[in-house]
Amino acid sequence: MMDDQFTPEEQHLIERLRAAPKVKLSASTREAIRQQMLSEFRTSVVAAQRPATFNRYHLQRLIVWCAAASIIIIVAGLLFLQNRSQSTPNHEATTLVASSDNQVAIAVASPTETLIPTIPITITPAPSVVTEVPSEVPSTETSVPIPSTPPEKIVVVEGPITTVVNNVITIHDFNIEVEAQHPILNLIDVGDVVRIEGTIGSDNQIVASMVSNITSASMVNNTVAATVNLDGLVEAIDGALITVNGIQAQLDADNPVLRTLQVGDFVSVQGDFQANGATVVLLVARITLIDNATLPENNCWYHDTGMGMGHWHCDGMGMGIGMGMGMEAMGMEAPPGMGIEPGMGMGMGN
Amino acid sequence: MQLTLNEQELVAKARNGDEGAVTLLYDAHIEAVFDYIRYRVDSTEEAEDLTSEVFLRMVRGLVGYKEQGVPFRAWLYRIAANLIVDHYRRREKTQLASAPEYAASDEPDPLDHLANEEEAMHLRLALRRLPEEYQNLLILRFVEDLPHTEISKILNKSAVSLRAMQYRALKALAEQLNELSTSYNAFRKHNL
Predict the structure, then answer these.
(1) Residue A156 carries which DSSP code?
(2) How far apart are CA B17 and CA B44, in angstroms?
(3) Is the CB of B155 inside 8 Å of chain A's CB atoms?
(4) For chain A, which has fewer Cβ within 10 Å, the N-terminal or C-terminal residue?
(5) How many other C-beta atoms are found inside a 10 Å radius of the C-beta of residue A124?
């Protein structure tokens, strides 16, 4: 701090400064300055407040719009993923296939993915033919849980190859399109018995998602008396002619099942294909109405082949749950790329 | 001196567009600002114009004003000091300083005034012949009675340098008053 000790001369000078009369600002001048200042205040400070409010308002609107846009994008993304998972053909999905006792495991993948078989392939032609349509049901009618929602139509065809033209295999008058680069095309030949799973394409041609060979022994044990196993939802009933997964199945007119059978029921049908004019009709030898009360909630169900073996089906809604179930049933670890592929779970189980 | 709580609130309100707050700030500081300027310029009219400009700049600068330990009044004095400098630059201060003291002033003839008015005029004339920082120091310290701490912040000087400056400023003022007195006596003798 400053030392205010002054000499007498300095003190006298300071007193003169302090005592000097001050010029007073006139009231009119003072008021004039005030008004001028307030006018400036209104145009500068007050005006400056308005843009601030304006900016805050726009910022709030921007935040709201961003949030809304984010929600829309997220919802659209989820819908897209959901639709994609529902509409993706099975043959495009990476599928792990574990064969039954035919010691063949072939993975059919998307064009960019081909899984290497884990077990050496052995082709053994078999004389008998078994054709399965949609998901499988044990021929011995063991408990078969069925999804509460209609599963995606999976066609399973087993039987001897009648023709092979490029990548189209014909089995029991069914043309089945196999991926052009599929290695099994180099191994199979006319007369070989193979098992094919796939979906029905837009041109009603089966598009294979899995191809494996089977042994004649397994065929015999699987087929029992019938040559075709067909599992699926009843889509239409016209007298004794029912439609299951797009396949017409002809029942005996006095079949007792017809009395209670309704559209939407899940049935397991065994029989033989028979030509009926221009169409092929499944002549039903046995039909079993599956109790819907046993349906699981995970959209997957297990098919018991009746030989203590079977596999899992999932309807493609689980986003990996189905595959996980399949892997679990197989006691295997899912290979890379499998976890995100929906609805193609399949495996072996007891 | 820090802003009092009330004054801080007034500044905050004024910044938010409160016209009443800015009016209170004006009333609180108009006299001091005018006094300061009046000591630094030649005429009352100039002082009024500059005082008005100080408060115009105050309201323009309110939005960006931040209380950083410098009193609000000190901020006003800084504005005033800058305006005075600009004012003299425009008027070519060097010519003004070399002009005859009484002719340069628009004050009425000192012979027609009372002794105290002559005294006030002498002091102002003497002050304006001092360096700017001396004028600021003497006016703020002894006319406006500001504490050393506030003057230190206004002038951006340390306490030690202010002490030395105060000593030199008083000494210079005494010399200027003596010169003016001699000149004034000669003027009166010549005109009477």
Answers:
(1) E
(2) 31
(3) no
(4) C
(5) 16
Q: Flag if B17 and A36 touch (Cβ within 8 Å).
A: no
Counting every residue, how long is chain B?
Answer: 192
**B65 touching A (Cβ < 8 Å):** no
Return d(Cα A199, Cα A134) in angstroms, integer.
8
Is B123 close to A36, i.e. CB distance below 8 A?
no
ipTM score over 0.95, yes or no: no
Cβ(B65)–Cβ(B74) below 8 Å = no
Partner-chain contact A25 B31, CB within 8 Å: yes
For A43, nearest residue in chain B (alpha carbons):
B60
Residue A128 confidence (pLDDT) above 70: no
Q: Is the Cβ pair A37, B59 closer than 8 Å?
A: yes
Q: Best of B52, B153, B162 to disrupt the A interface by mutation (most A CBs within 10 Å)?
A: B52
Residues of A in contact with B174 (CB under 8 A): 9-10, 13
Residue that is written with structure tokens 């209104």 in the block: A42
- Cα–Cα distances (Å) from B23 to A46, B11, B29, B64, in that order, read 14, 11, 10, 18
Higher pLDDT, A289 or A204: A289
- Per-residue pLDDT at A205: 75
Angle at A33 between CA B143 and CA B128, to 5 degrees: 35
DSSP state of A95: B
Q: Which residues of A109-120 are buried (b: 16+ CB within 10 A; e: fewer)?
A: bbeebbbebeee
In chain A, residues with a C-beta closer than 8 Å to the C-beta of B116 are: 20-21
Tokens 């406006």, residue?
B144
Q: H or E segment at A65?
A: helix A47-87
3-state secondary structure of A305: coil
**Chain A environment of B15 (Cβ under 8 Å):** 45
What is the rounded CA–CA span in Å between residue A95 and residue A53?
59
Q: What is the pLDDT of residue A252?
A: 87
Interface A–B counts its CB contacts (< 8 A) at: 106
pTM: 0.41
Identify the CA nearest to A97 among candidates A288, A326, A272. A326
Residue with tokens 């029991």: A172
Instruction: Determine phi and psi for B66, rounding to 5 degrees.
Output: -130, 135
Mean pLDDT for A87-115 is 34
More confident of the two residues B4 and A113:
B4
With CB atoms and an 8 Å threshold, state whether A21 touches B35.
no
- Angle subtended at Cα B172 by Cα B171 and Cα B178, rounded to the nearest 5 degrees: 95
Answer yes or no: do B48 and A33 touch at CB < 8 A.
yes
Output the six-digit token pair for B35. Answer: 């006094």
Whether residue B63 and residue A29 make contact (CB cut-off 8 A), yes or no, is: no
A49/B26 touch (CB, cutoff 8 Å), yes or no: no
